[in-house]
Amino acid sequence: DSGVTQTPKHLITATGQRVTLRCSPRSGDLSVYWYQQSLDQGLQFLIHYYNGEERAKGNILERFSAQQFPDLHSELNLSSLELGDSALYFCASSVEVSYTEAFFGQGTRLTVV
Amino acid sequence: DAKTTQPPSMDCAEGRAANLPCNHSTISGNEYVYWYRQIHSQGPQYIIHGLKNNETNEMASLIITEDRKSSTLILPHATLRDTAVYYCIVINGPPETSGSRLTFGEGTQLTVNP
Fold first, then answer.
1. How far apart are CA B12 and CA A108, in angstroms?
2. Which of A72, A97, B27, B104 has its CA 20 to 30 A from that of A24?
3. What confidence tens digit (pLDDT) does each residue in B54-67 have?
4. What was the pLDDT predicted at A87?
5. Residues of A in Cβ contact (< 8 Å) with B93
6. Which residues of B touch A102 (CB under 8 A)?
7. What is the spatial distance between Cα B100 and Cα B96, in angstroms, rounded to a whole number?
8. Residue A55 burial (CB count, 10 A)
């Protein structure tokens, strides 16, 4: 158990819908990272928050947004969902803004039908 | 961040040492070598990292060549549960760098056979 909690574990939704994925980082970790893993793309970095502020963006679509709340949990919002958004979405946390080591949650498997 | 090259797959017999190579010939002086692994569809798991010196922890050993252009992750006594994709990643380490994050390549699929 990494200490990073992601909910829900599985999500099935229809195209055009909007979903919210939630991540609770390890206690004391200020950084939260979101990654997407689809079959044909591998693990892709989406976005990084540190202590409530956005620090880096990767290959995140405009239909996707994220935020980190004062209690340090984070949410990833995916809207106007397409079939191609079906993937595993991982959250990771680390203590610092720069890497020491990151701890990943077990992921949310999103299926868009 | 420096690019890494890893073999796509390797096999290892259970109980033997697994030696996973990684080439990072363009690594710069302030870049660290990190190793993660991902067991099928689970979240990636941190294994070890290093800058110049060899490192060892309860999971593995990391051997970095003197010129730092390559490294080897060693699992001393591989078990079936070590079957996973192993990722070698090179990134800027501390002090803080804005936008620091892990960039995963294809990794090496290690299969430990009974």
1. 31
2. B104
3. 999 999 999 999 99
4. 96
5. 98-99
6. 46, 102
7. 8
8. 21
